[in-house]
Write a structure and sequence with these properties.
Chain lengths: 175, 419
């Protein structure tokens, strides 16, 4: 299943990127498919049930469950997608007046070893700002997650119409 | 809760294995102690050994057929008819079927749908099945001629009093489940995800006896009190496959669905006594046996006469008129009763039958039978068709694909990712 891309699989697909950021060796191209020894191959981050809320323009959000099957913590520090300019990692917090608002998550999303982190409406999520094209139900969006070690993971997220997930942005906007 | 139902853990394992794509077996029958008091106090007497809870049962998609056709009928039905929005086209229908097929596969395995706002309502699948179909207009306009199965609208029948409100739609989903809450959730999820692409024209709800009320396999009774569906195709008989599954290469593994919404005039039926009621149908009300027989499945003897020389089974009775000498004029009946509040009617409600029939070729198998009933059937005095539609039921989704993909995209694209 495409959406269960693991870092190990991606290590094979993204050899140039790995080499560029120094975490892969010169012969990574040959080793990657079978190598179990590189740190990237062991950072087994998968994303189950990734999805994006449909939106004609402006902003939207992406959700799913980040699963860390590895033996050390994994941090998602950044994300980009195929449909927008700026993607932020958000958490939802309670304002002083008791209302809920979202704001960028300091230090990114940390997924403990052997644990998982749910990105869901009303909680942590990826916020997609500056949509460059309509995000239409029934299509997919490619999301690229950048991990703390500089490696990246691609995720195919299904777009669904969804009436919720209209949390207030802490600075006033909505998405 | 120590000593609690042991099947919980098994259910988790099962849904994990069968969560996607319909792979994996459904519930494997095994005897389990699931009775709370017996489990808590085994010394009180012999433990009551029961099967897995009905709510945990799943109907996996097996082979090339969608589930919900040869599946023993569940207790509840929601038949959803959609009209595609004008701008939907083949792109919209493809997207819709991707989303809905994914919903159906997850929900049928007892897993929440993607972006499910009420995931707890998916926890008890209770044999949920979702069977999708396309109407004639979809085949004509959105399926290329080279892979288009032949499907004509049903012909008009003189006695029909059709209301467009219950008429032919572009897409249908037959959603069946033994539990009405699970069913309502699945229906809502499908309708939500279809909304971008299509408008609901009707939802036909129906019911049979509740799970466990009568032994499995008992022929249903309709709301006129009749045993309804005695003459039916059983998956075990050799005629089942050729009469149900399409022989058309374009629809291999698929079938066709005839939907007839049949209103019963129960206020008029109230005026008919038991003898009259049995004459109308040609069967006994208590056993469902033909008037010439003793048990339900006895063959009617249309030549038998009474002491005055009159036929025991009236030649104009329903059983006589529905019978065909041609063994090809048979189909798989999977009907549900309906009753809706209707204060405008003297009875305060509108009751009848959502007649569902699956056939490899409705024009050859169903239409001749309906023509005969339309010409003459004593039962017509009390029943009238108010809705009529026909659909092509595609085969099961290809591995990793969606239902209808073989028609919309061709067979070579079966390996595409579902989401």
């Amino acid at each position: 299943m495409k959406k269960h891309l693991t870092a190990a699989v991606l290590a094979a697909a993204l050899v140039p990127a790995l080499a560029a950021c120094g975490s892969g060796s010169e012969d990574a191209r040959d080793q990657a498919p079978t190598s179990g020894s590189s740190p990237a191959a062991k950072a087994a981050l998968t994303v189950t049930d990734p999805w994006v809320k449909a939106a004609p323009s402006g902003m939207t959000a992406a959700f799913g469950t980040l699963v860390n099957e590895g033996s050390s913590d994994v941090t998602v520090v950044a994300a980009t997608t195929s449909v927008n300019d700026t993607t932020e990692l958000h958490e939802t917090v309670e304002n002083e007046d008791g209302s809920m608002a979202m704001r960028p998550k300091e230090g990114g999303f940390v997924i403990p070893a052997g644990g998982s982190l749910a990105l869901e409406p009303g909680g942590d999520h990826l916020m997609l700002m500056g949509l460059t094209e309509p995000v239409e139900a029934g299509t997919t969006v490619t999301i690229t997650l950048t991990l703390g070690d500089g490696t990246t993971t691609d995720v195919e997220a299904t777009v669904k119409a969804f009436d919720g997930a209209d949390e207030k942005y802490q600075n006033g906007g909505e998405h | 809760m120590p000593g609690g139902p042991r099947w919980d853990r098994r259910r988790v394992l099962r849904t994990g294995a069968a969560a996607f794509g319909g792979a994996g077996a459904g519930w494997s029958a095994s005897a389990l102690v699931a009775n709370g008091s017996a489990a808590a106090a085994p010394t009180d007497g012999p433990a009551r050994v029961v099967g897995p809870s009905a709510g945990a049962e799943t109907v996996p998609v097996v082979g090339t057929h969608q589930a919900g056709v040869d599946t023993p009928p569940q207790a509840h039905l929601a038949l959803v008819g959609w009209d595609l929005r004008e701008d939907a086209g083949v792109v919209g229908l493809t997207r819709m079927m991707r989303l809905l097929s994914d919903d159906a596969a997850r929900l049928a395995s007892g897993t929440a749908a993607l972006a499910d706002t009420e995931p707890e309502l998916a926890a008890h699948p209770a044999r949920l099945t979702v069977t999708f179909g396309f109407g004639p207009r979809v085949l004509r306009d959105l399926v290329p001629a080279g892979r288009r199965p032949r499907l004509d609208e049903l012909p008009g029948f003189d006695r029909d009093r059709l209301d467009p409100r219950w008429g032919q739609t572009d897409v249908v989903a037959q959603v069946c489940c033994d539990d009405p809450t699970t069913l309502a959730h699945a229906r809502r999820m499908l309708v939500k995800d279809a909304r971008t692409f299509a408008q609901v024209r009707w939802i036909q709800q129906g019911f049979r006896t509740a799970r466990g009320t009568v032994p499995d396999g008992t022929t249903m009774r309709n709301l006129m009190g009749q045993v309804d569906g005695t003459v039916n195709l059983a998956p075990a008989e050799p005629d089942f496959d050729p009469l149900v599954w399409s022989g058309d290469d374009a629809l291999a593994g698929g079938t066709f669905l005839v939907v007839r919404r049949i209103r019963m005039q129960l206020d008029k039926w109230d005026r008919v006594d038991r003898v009259g009621r049995e004459v109308v149908v040609g069967r006994r009300l208590d056993t469902g046996a033909p008037l010439t027989g003793v048990t339900e499945f006895d063959e009617p003897d249309f030549a038998a006469t009474d002491r005055f020389g009159f036929p025991v089974i009236d030649p104009a009775s329903h059983v006589a008129r529905a019978r065909s000498a041609d063994p090809r004029e048979r189909f798989l009946r999977r009907a549900y009763s309906y009753t809706e509040p209707d204060p405008a009617r003297s009875t305060g409600e509108d009751s009848g039958l959502v007649f569902l029939a699956f056939a490899a070729d409705p024009a050859r198998q169903f239409v001749p039978v309906q023509r005969r009933l339309d010409e003459l059937d004593r039962l017509n005095e009390w029943v009238v068709a108010i809705g009529s539609a026909v659909y092509a039921i595609p085969p099961a989704a290809p591995q990793g694909g969606y239902v209808g993909q073989q028609l919309l995209e061709g067979k070579s694209t079966g390996e595409k990712s579902p989401s």
